[in-house]
Amino acid sequence: MSESHEFEYVIEMRRKDNYKFEVDFESDQIPKLLTDEPPSIPGGEGRGPTASMLLAAAVGNCLSASLTFCATKKRVEIQELKTTVKLTRKRNENGFWRISKIHVDLEPTVEEKEGSDYKKCKEMYEDYCIVSQSVKNGIPLEINLIQK
Length: 148
Description:
By secondary structure, the chain is an alpha+beta fold. The protein folds into two domains: 11-49, no CATH class; 51-133, K homology (KH) domain (GMP Synthetase, Chain A, domain 3, 2-Layer Sandwich). It is 28% helix and 31% strand. The protein is built from three helices and five strands, in the order E-E-E-H-E-E-H-H. The protein has helices spanning 51-73, 118-128, 130-137, and strands at residues 12-17, 20-24, 33-35, 76-91, 97-112. The strands form two sheets. It has a three-stranded antiparallel β-sheet with strand order 1-2-3, with no helix packed on it. Strands 4-5 form a two-stranded antiparallel ribbon. Strand 1 and strand 2 (20-24) form a beta hairpin. The mean pLDDT is 92.
């Protein structure tokens, strides 16, 4: 949140079997993650989060981290923070599933100290969230299918 230069993440995914993919964040400090589809999809086993779940988690995590970042800057102690994300999906006009809404509830327990400015923080923390603001504004997506 405080970096001032452009950077990229490179994440590599490899199919293990059926719908299971191993996600490698190319970091010694971050373990690989297994994603999967639910058993309601033939071949899915529900052994890991789906892509939709990861998107919901990314939005909720970013907003939680942004509120924490802002509160820290404003000298406000967050004692507890519960974040609940509800992702809604529905079929589009062509019958394909799409994410139609993401609803986020943040429930912080805060202790305001003298000189803190939590009110200002509540007004601006969303601006710090890279993920939610990018999703809200529509991220340009480039897709290449490289046939081998």
